[in-house]
Amino acid sequence: MAVAIDLVKRYGAELHLISVIEELPKYVATLDVVEEVRAEALRHYQAIQEEASRQAEPHGAKTYDAIIPGHEVQTIVQHAEQGRFDLLVVGRYGHSARWLKHLGSTSSQIAFHAPCTVLVVA
After folding, report:
1. Among 11, 26, 31, 63, which is least packed, fewest CB within 10 Å?
2. What is the fold, at CATH topology level, of the domain defined by 2-121?
3. What sign does the dihedral 41-42-47-51 (CA atoms) show?
4. What is the pairing mode between strands 87-91 and 117-121?
5. What is the rounded distance in angstroms from the CA atom of residue 27 to the CA atom of residue 29?
6. Could you give the angle at the alpha carbon of 72 between the alpha carbons of 67 and 77, nearest 5°?
7. For residue 90, how many other CB atoms are within 10 A of its CB?
8. Are 90 and 80 in contact (CB under 8 A)?
């Protein structure tokens, strides 16, 4: 987050905070389980984004929050295309080890598919 805030300060950029809630598997037992997991994920990402906005505010950074359901890589790439972003700043590790195992790594897949420059930070 510190790198993104520094870039916002230096270049007067906008800061878009994007979180992706992964789709649940089709075999999830009941609708109650689905709703509970979605609500928990939403609370988790809202807390992360609120903290990021709180960190950015003293530096004059205007933040735009988005919590979107979908596949992490595809959703972030599409959001970057639609927003005509110049740069994506992503963490080296995501919040889901599942994608690290299946895709190699979320950040490398985003870097490969993104329509703009991607800065991967530790």
Report:
1. 26
2. Rossmann fold (3.40.50)
3. positive
4. parallel
5. 6
6. 90
7. 19
8. no
Q: Quote the CA–CA distance of 54 and 57 in Å, as a whole number.
A: 5
Under 8 Å between Cβ of 73 and 109? yes
CA dihedral 6, 9, 10, 12 (to 10 degrees): 130
Contact 80, 109 (CB under 8 A): no
Only one residue has tokens 């740069």, namely 87
pLDDT digits (tens, 9 = 90+) for 19-68: 999 877 666 667 777 788 889 999 999 999 999 999 999 998 889 999 99
Q: What is the pTM of this model?
A: 0.80
Tens of pLDDT along 68-103? 999 999 999 999 999 999 999 998 766 555 444 543
